[in-house]
Amino acid sequence: MRVRSRWTVALAAVIAAVVLSPLPAIAGQEEQFTPEYKEVRSAFDPKHTPRIVAPDRVKRGEWFDVTITVGAGGDHPSLGEHFVRYIALYINGAEISRAYLHPVFSFPKVTFTIALDEGGVLKAVEEPTHSAAWESSKPITVTP
Questions:
Q1: What is the domain count for the chain?
Q2: pLDDT tens-digit profile of 36-46?
Q3: Per DSSP, which regions of the chain are E strands?
Q4: CA–CA gap between residue 124 and residue 87 (Å, rounded)
Q5: Domain with 128 in it: what CATH number?
Q6: pTM of the model
Q7: Which of 37, 80, 108, 135 could form a disulfide with 84 if both were Cys (CB 3.0 to 4.6 A apart)?
Q8: Domain carrying residue 130
Q9: Residue 28, domain member (yes or no)
Q10: 55 in a domain, yes or no?
């Protein structure tokens, strides 16, 4: 029994060392991402700014479409090396829907069908592979 206990303790020590030690490939990557890369961008960029197409007014609880296209002044590329990872939709800061896109096979455009209880600000966020995320917003009014 004593040999087995030593073996168990040794194995637990090895597992703890592996699990608790940082992986060399990941260690230090955080420093590679500068504040400019992390900060969501809201300035206009023809290839990155999301364009939101939705009604200005909707009735409470009724379904309607919100279409988001990446590239308010032209289409964002969808290549293996540069594409849009996802497009997300928010209302008043709360995420309500997200679509992940595949490189090459997915055009950076999505349509979400939603219903709202109250008005506010719709916000679209898209994250490409080569820069920080980009956002745009559109106010929406909900009537009874």
A1: 1
A2: 556 787 777 77
A3: 50-53, 57-59, 64-70, 84-91, 94-100, 109-114, 120-128, 134-143
A4: 7
A5: 2.60.40.730
A6: 0.71
A7: 108
A8: 34-143
A9: no
A10: yes
